[in-house]
């Protein structure tokens, strides 16, 4: 590994948690009472459960090649956290279904294309590189949620779900990257994984958001042009620039390591305030 990676003695513990969330009064438009904001958030949430199973598969493929005992311990925590994230989001899917949204039409196509067609096309090393890149993006989104008030206008139940998820994304943000560095330290592999991850995330996220917005329109809840213009401005400032542009700019540095973004304190403070810090 490069000099930026932590030593075995410096590796952080990655504990698994199972908080409970109640969505009993979750409105259809739970994010700022705004259809576009809500469906963009729901759209990326739809990608999480099977995406996180892909992350686990990608790392687990190389489990027997991880020599560092500290990294092996982190990998086990990574598996547990990602599995619990997927399960928590699937519970929220049931609320969306009860509200009348059809999720399964999109999920069938997404999973068939992403994991039935695309995943087998790439080498295990490339799949791991894609995972490392997507973990970098989720860590940036997590930082926004905790440091910049991205979720301030969200319903309390979704705030709790997404902030817990954000904290754990920060906790394990370097795991896939460190496994990649251990099994294939090639800069080209890392960059190609980021390119693939970016294209896939943009296309699937746009497709899931559009799928949900069309259902809102059919249900008589069309998006107003004013709301669309206002949200487009916020989206351009946050998602495009602060996630994708920042993410690629950082990741393409040859000496990059996820720990260079020292946002662990954000996660520690929120988890402590929510009673989720480890004993």
Distinctive features:
279 residues; mainly alpha; 9 helices; 69% helix; 0% strand; globular
Give the structural class. mainly alpha
Q: Compute the number of strand runs.
A: 0
Average pLDDT, all residues? 91
Helix count? 9
Question: Helices and strands in order, then pairings?
Answer:
Layout: H1 35-60, H2 69-98, H3 104-121, H4 124-147, H5 156-171, H6 175-183, H7 187-218, H8 225-251, H9 264-273
Helix pairs in contact: 1-2, 1-3, 1-4, 1-7, 2-6, 4-5, 4-6, 4-7, 4-8, 5-9
Detailed description of the structure:
The chain is mainly alpha-helical and 279 residues long. It has one domain. The protein is built from 9 helices and no strands. It has helices at 35-60, 69-98, 104-121, 124-147, 156-171, 175-183, 187-218, 225-251, 264-273. Helix 4 runs antiparallel to helix 6 (175-183) and helix 5 (156-171) packs across helix 9 (264-273). 34% of the residues are buried.
């Amino acid at each position: 590994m490069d000099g930026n990676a932590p030593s075995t003695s410096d590796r952080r513990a990655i504990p698994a948690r199972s908080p409970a969330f109640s969505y009993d009064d979750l409105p259809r438009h739970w994010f700022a009472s705004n259809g576009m904001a809500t469906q963009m958030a729901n759209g990326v949430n739809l990608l999480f459960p099977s995406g996180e199973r892909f992350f686990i598969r990608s790392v687990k493929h190389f489990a027997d090649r991880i020599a560092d005992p500290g990294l092996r311990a982190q990998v086990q925590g990574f598996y547990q956290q990602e599995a619990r994230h997927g399960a928590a989001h699937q519970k929220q899917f049931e609320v969306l279904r009860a509200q009348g949204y059809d999720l399964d039409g999109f999920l069938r196509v997404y999973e068939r294309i992403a994991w039935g067609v695309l995943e087998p096309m790439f080498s295990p090393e490339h799949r791991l590189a894609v995972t490392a890149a997507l973990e970098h993006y989720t860590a940036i989104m997590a930082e926004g949620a905790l440091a910049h008030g991205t979720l301030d206008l969200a319903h309390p139940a979704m705030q709790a779900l997404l902030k817990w998820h954000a904290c754990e994304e920060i906790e394990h943000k370097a795991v896939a990257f460190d496994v990649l560095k251990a099994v294939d330290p090639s800069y080209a592999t890392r960059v190609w994984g980021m390119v693939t991850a970016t294209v896939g995330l943009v296309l699937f996220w746009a497709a899931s958001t559009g799928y949900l917005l069309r259902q809102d329109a059919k249900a008589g809840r069309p998006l107003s042009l004013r709301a669309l213009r206002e949200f487009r401005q916020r989206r351009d400032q946050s998602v495009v620039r602060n996630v994708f542009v920042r993410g690629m700019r950082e990741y393409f540095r040859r000496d990059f390591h996820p720990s260079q973004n020292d946002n662990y304190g954000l996660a520690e403070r929120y988890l402590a305030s929510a009673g989720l810090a480890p004993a």
